[in-house]
Design a protein that fits this description.
single chain, RNA polymerase binding, 2 domains, Helix Hairpins, Tscrpt_elong_fac_GreA/B_C, alpha/beta, five-stranded mixed sheet, DNA-binding, protein biosynthesis, Chitinase A, domain 3, 7 strands, two-stranded parallel sheet
């Protein structure tokens, strides 16, 4: 069974989503199915079919969340330190072409969100950064072509 690395915050979010799906969404969907069933002929009942589809989606996500949580390897980032980039690090980079600065935290796949500055440990950028120190230059093959970055800061929170 493959372990799934994640931060404590990411683990808490998954647990909260699982609890919500089990205690709020599941009963709501069951009620919607019962209500739609009361309308009669199920073969032509769009509400019934929509509720059954929502139930299938919800139960699939519950199973997925339970699997991820059972395989989670929670890493307490607050106890990490050093100047080498690894899981949980917050890395400040400068694009060597445009001089644009970016800050990324390297997290587990389930908690990655580029809009919030979190990239997956399995992403090309994170794989290029891991093991490097401040001052190192990394080249990443991005969808838009190769990009070069310089690591200007590594910190932990």
């Amino acid at each position: 069974m493959e372990r799934v690395p994640m931060t404590a915050a990411g683990f808490s979010q998954l647990e909260a989503e699982l609890k919500h799906r089990q205690t709020v969404e599941r009963p709501r969907i069951i009620e919607a199915i019962a209500e739609a069933r009361a309308h009669g002929d199920l073969s032509e009942n769009a509400e019934y079919h929509a509720a059954k589809e929502a139930q299938s989606h919800n139960e699939g996500r519950i199973a997925e969340l339970e699997s991820i949580i059972s395989r989670a390897e929670v890493i307490d980032v607050s106890k990490l330190s050093g100047d080498v980039v690894k899981f949980g690090a917050i890395v400040k980079l400068i694009d060597e072409d445009s001089e644009e600065e970016r800050v990324w935290q390297i997290v587990g796949e389930q908690e990655a969100d580029a809009k919030k500055g979190r990239i997956s440990i399995t992403s090309p950028l994170a794989r290029a950064l891991v093991g490097k120190k401040v001052g190192a230059s990394v080249e990443v093959n991005a969808p838009g072509g190769a990009k070069s970055y310089e690591i200007i800061e590594v910190r932990w929170s």
